[in-house]
Amino acid sequence: MKFTEILRMALGSLGVNKLRSALTMLGITIGVFSVIGVMTAVSALRQSVESGLSFLGSNIIQVGKNPIGISSDGANRRRFENRRDITLPNALRFAQLIEGYTDVVCLKTFNNEGVVQATYENRKTSPGLNFGGSNEHFLTANQYSIGIGRNLTPADVELARPVIIIGQTIVSRLFPNETPLGKLVKVSGKTYTVIGTFAERGSSFGNSQDGILIIPITRFVIDFGRARRSISIAIQAPSQDRYNETLDKIVTAMRIVRGLRPEQENDFEIYSNDSLIAAFAKVADAISAGAFVISAIALLAAGVGIMNIMLVSVTERTKEIGIRKSIGARKISILTQFLIESVAISVAGGLVGILLGVGAGNGLALLLSASVVFPWGWALAGLLVCCGIGVGFGFYPAWKAAALDPIEALRYE
Fold first, then answer.
1. CA dihedral defined by 45, 48, 52, 54, rounded to 10 degrees?
2. Where are the alpha helices (DSSP H) in 180-272?
3. Which residues, at least 6 apart from 220, have a Cβ–Cβ distance to it below 8 Å?
4. pLDDT-based confidence at 56, cuts 50/70/90?
5. Fewer C-beta within 10 Å: the chain N or C terminus?
6. Per-residue pLDDT at 188 exceeds 50
7. Which residue from 237, 291, 260 is spatially nearest to 41, judged by alpha carbons?
8. What angle (nearest 5°) sits at the alpha carbon of residue 48, between those of residues 45 and 52?
9. How far apart are CA 401 and CA 342, in angstroms?
10. pLDDT of residue 196
11. pTM of the complete model
């Protein structure tokens, strides 16, 4: 028999039992969907993260009290939580020590207690604004720019002036038809004069970057206290070539500020774009591993289902196989037909799983404002795995069908 005729007969046999074929495909679809969906979302988010972290500028190194993502281990968590805060005097002393080496030393701290809401006359914003204190280098270190008005100045910080720069979310809610410059807004019970607005930034990973308010860091500490408040410091290396040199100077200056002896380990953390990407990669790898386990179980169950259905099919079509053999069908033709049926069910389920997985993964990526991707490598790997499952779990039923004795098969009722 020609291969095209064998293929036609195999697909025709599947069409006879559409519901059974569809249910058999479902297991494959679920397994492929789980891994392709997760890998699509992870690939999209990884690409978005690696293309540039939106909250760090070029060649930025950050210093903080705690590492990114403190371990859930109790002892380890307590070790970090018991560290001394980086106080404002610490941060100012650090800035003095590296003065002249770099022009960008951004000091910043944000409100982590309560829900922040801004008001102007009888208008108010939605709660949940990002409110903090910084200095004149906040724009450079965090890739913001001024829309209208002016930036904070060293004099604003030194004199702790009650001035504020607001994001476009606040502008649209409080000042829809007038300029915000010079107006008095109230934030967390304190009043500040608007001196500028941030240019629109949009969203990153599903969070708006325009709901932000920044006042001089000295004013922030005066208004909201020093207790349980640690300052973060962002330093920009003069160039990529001097990045490592800058890193060494930062460590040295910070150890001096913290009063650490040579034998003592650092009680602060330094991180950059690379460390943030690495932290994201750890989470992504853990999620991917979980998806592989789930999909492996689903695919194994689906493979057993395919073998069971194919054995049932062989039993139901025993007489048909006997008739075909009696008129000259060879073993290889019977074997090929049943293998094609098994592979067709598996690949069809895999294709549906890939399409659903890519759609769901990119849907999640769009919700988080990440780029859309099509994981060609994972899709190809998924199809190859489906082919392998079809051949591996379909071979025994196909071999059993090909090995039937034609005389015994013709007698079967």
1. -80
2. 217-224, 243-258
3. 109, 132, 133
4. low
5. C
6. yes
7. 291
8. 140
9. 13
10. 95
11. 0.61
SS3 category, 124: strand
* Rounded (to 5) percent helix, strand, coil in the chain: 55, 15, 30
Average pLDDT over the chain reads 83
Q: Give the Cα separation of 272 and 285 in Å (integer).
A: 20
**Which neighbouring-strand residues pair with 394?**
none
Amino acid at 332: I
Q: Give the separation between CA 167 and CA 170, rounded to whole angstroms.
A: 6
CB 61 within 8 A of CB 272: yes
- Residues 162 and 215 sit within 8 Å (Cβ to Cβ): yes
Euclidean distance between CA atoms 84 and 86, whole angstroms: 6
Quote the CA–CA distance of 115 and 218 in Å, as a whole number. Answer: 21
Alpha carbon 239 to chain centroid, angstroms: 29
Question: Cα–chain-centroid distance for residue 127?
Answer: 26
Chain-centroid distance of CA 390 in Å reads 33
In which residue are the tokens 């979310």 written? 169
Q: Which burial class, exposed, middle or buried, applies to 100 when counting CB atoms under 10 A from its CB (0-12, 13-18, 19+)?
A: exposed
Rounded to whole angstroms, how far apart are CA atoms 29 and 226?
A: 56
Q: Is 64 exposed, middle or buried (0-12, 13-18, 19+ CB in 10 A)?
A: middle
Residue 54 has pLDDT above 50, yes or no: no
What's the rounded Cα separation, in Å, for the pair 243 and 236? Answer: 9
Is the model's pLDDT at 72 over the cut of 50? no
The pLDDT tens digits of the residues spanning 297-333 come to: 888 888 888 888 888 888 877 887 788 778 777 888 8
Amino acid 171 reads V
- Cβ(234)–Cβ(108) under 8 Å? yes
